[in-house]
Design a protein that fits this description.
CATH architecture of the largest domain: 3-Layer(aba) Sandwich
Strand order of the largest sheet: 7-6-5-8-9-11-10
Number of domains: 2
Distance between the termini: 67 Å
Strand content: 15-25%
Mean pLDDT: 88
CATH topology of the largest domain: Rossmann fold
Shape: elongated
Order of helices and strands: HHEEEHHEHHHHHEHEHEEHEHHEHHHEH
Largest sheet: 7 strands, mixed
Radius of gyration: 23 Å
Number of helices: 18
Number of strands: 11
CATH class of the largest domain: Alpha Beta
Low-confidence stretches: none
Length: 414
Amino acid sequence: MLDELVLDRLGGLAPAAARALAVELPDGRRVGPGDAAVLLRARSWRALAPLLRGRIGRIARDYVEGRVELEGPMHRIIELAGELVPDTAPTAASRAGPLDWLRSAWRHRPQRDAWQVRRHYDVSDAFYALWLDPRRVYSCAYWAQPGLTLAQAQEAKLELVCRKLLLRPGLRLLDIGAGWGALLLWAAEHHGVQATGITLSRHQQAHVERLIDERGLRGRVQMRLLDWRDLPEDEPWDRIASVGMFEHVGRARLPAYFAKIRRLLAPGGLLLNHGITAGGTRNAQLGAGIGDFVERHIFPGGELLHVSHVLRVMAEQGLETVDMENLRPHYARTLWSWSDALEARLEAARRVADERTLRAFRLYLAGSAMGFERGWMALHQLLATRPSGRLGEGALRGAQSAYPFNRQYVYSAG
């Protein structure tokens, strides 16, 4: 009976997908073409249910936890996963009631946030070094020209952030969630700022401290192990960057996060908020079981919000958005670059990470690339100001911030 259901499921796929996928049943029988590019081997009959229902997140979980085996090139595995999902399932509307708000608030207490960040980022520095660029930029790259390498595209992103923030010597820059320090070091070395970063990852802090000494930047750059809620507010910052950070804040804490940033930012100063946003306007997480998989095996506590929600919260906390750019296709290409790099070094990865972690990241990187390609998620850079209240005069009348009257300065800078 189940073999007939599996056969019907495969027959319902597009012809190219049906020719590429085969399923091995728990009793050893094989359903599908003998020369299929991808083989899904189910170790139990229960493991077939997600396949029949298009719950690709549950298939991913079963693979990580050993109930399913997947054989074949990762690109083909992910392409077929996308074919199994109904088009609207990942971004379909889902209810978010009072209990969801309370759950978000509970998950994003300071101690819980620290555990969640360390769970992801402290896996192994050597593991991340295998597939990130040499600067270990763990966020969307910017492909300013098609032929850039990943390393060049990440440097282009760092420069894009610095240009949008109008960095210049002497300004004080705060980087909230500074990762392995690439933006801090780039801003100090190329734009002469005084840069401070914060992180909850001890591994990241230790890495950046080493780089500060190696590059002779002690006194100009510092990296602190600190929660954003504990940042002192006695001396405002000229510029603030939040790159790949607010996804970890949570819906319930987002108003407090942007209120804190407003208090930290000097009047007329600039904020660059760079982060992943939801593709749907009313989905509390990605559907088809994808959000559950990411929560369990990749980013515990991560929450995605539509950019319209983020803009509203920023405005309600007194931050004026002056520029918005969607880099969605750039992140798809970035993630495929990471996925390809990891796939090319699987044996090295097995020496520095356990098999469950490796399986989870293989599916996460390639699956996220597909998600950005299909618009299930987006990546927005939001440039905002804390209006100074000073109207100015002449050509600058009404500006109330360091932001110019057009964005030409971003692309014409030498």
